[in-house]
Amino acid sequence: MKTIIIPTDFSAPSENAAFYALQLALRLNANIHLCHALRPEGPDPSLGGISMAVKNFPELREVCISRLQKLTGELQNKAAEILLNFPGVYRPEISTSCDFGDVSTIVQKTAEAKVVPMVVMGMTGAGKLDRLVFGSNTQEMIKRTKLPLLIIPFDKTFEVPSRIAYSSEMSAEDKLTAQSLAKFAGYFNAELLVAHIPNFVEVIDSREYSNRQKNFTKDFDGRFTFKSIKADNIDSGLELLKKEKIDMLVMGHENHGFLDRFIFGSYAARHASKVGLPLLIIPKRFVPQF
């Protein structure tokens, strides 16, 4: 059974992401797993360099479990409310875990022996809650994740997407990813917009570029369009994407095109907030299964 993993620090952004993920789970016929990472607050010399979080782990874990149970109840209530209007729709099962370690390691451990279509997290899940600490460094998570990662802006509530944009380099691997994304878009009856940023040579040799485009989109299933995006900088590229009226951005972890600079630049979080759209990051050499 498919399972969507949701790392949470119980902050408003991460809980918003959890409710967004619930809507996805209902449509993808997937279960949900909430996980919390207990992290050290720094070495304590009186403990020989061992963090207080380690010393007090049993107490912290008990608090963590209590808060996970509370969030689980809220999600279950929301699911019941939604299903009143959609009888027969799959009701997601919700499981939880609370472990000591960094977030990316906890997520990867949780994903073992599971079919995970994606991990969903809040864009600015920050800060402490009593002594529970979750270091939700978005860029670190993007770089280290081995699973598709969907990042939800803090102020973004779920709306059924009608158009999903995928930044592609038109490689053979990208074609497999695009075909999988077309299936994902199909759950919402949405259109997949395959966007490509041509380099100078591709712009000059328009005939070869056109043939490459046709070969890339051959045998695609579902609703899709292809668009060549010509942009010199981040801001102009953002404006071009906004004009396409998209509801979600999808890009590869190691995409060397324009949107790679958009995500992995030093101001990634600021630009992501500026766009205000969910961002789905696909790891290199990973074909998502939705």
Tertiary shape: globular
Which fold name is given in CATH as the topology of the largest domain?
Answer: Rossmann fold
CATH superfamily of the largest domain: HUPs
Report the major sheet.
7 strands, mixed
Radius of gyration from the alpha-carbon trace, in angstroms: 20 Å
- What order do the SSEs take from the amino end to the carboxyl end, as H and E? EHEEEHHEHEEEHEEHEHHEHEHHE
Proportion of residues in helical segments: 40-55%
Do you know the CATH architecture of the largest domain? 3-Layer(aba) Sandwich
What would you note in describing this structure?
The structure is a single chain. The protein is an alpha/beta fold and 290 residues long. The protein folds into 2 domains: 3-152, HUPs (Rossmann fold), CATH 3.40.50; 163-282, 3-Layer(aba) Sandwich (Rossmann fold). The chain contains 11 helices and 14 strands. Helix 1 crosses helix 3 and helix 10 crosses helix 11. The protein starts with a strand and ends in an 8-residue tail after the last strand.
Layout of strands and helices, then pairs:
Elements lengths: L2 E5 L4 H17 L2 E8 L4 E2 L5 E2 H4 L1 H27 L10 E7 L2 H9 L7 E4 L5 E2 L2 E2 L4 H7 L4 E4 L10 E5 L4 H15 L4 E6 L3 H5 L1 H12 L6 E5 L5 H10 L4 E5 L5 H7 L3 H8 L3 E4 L8
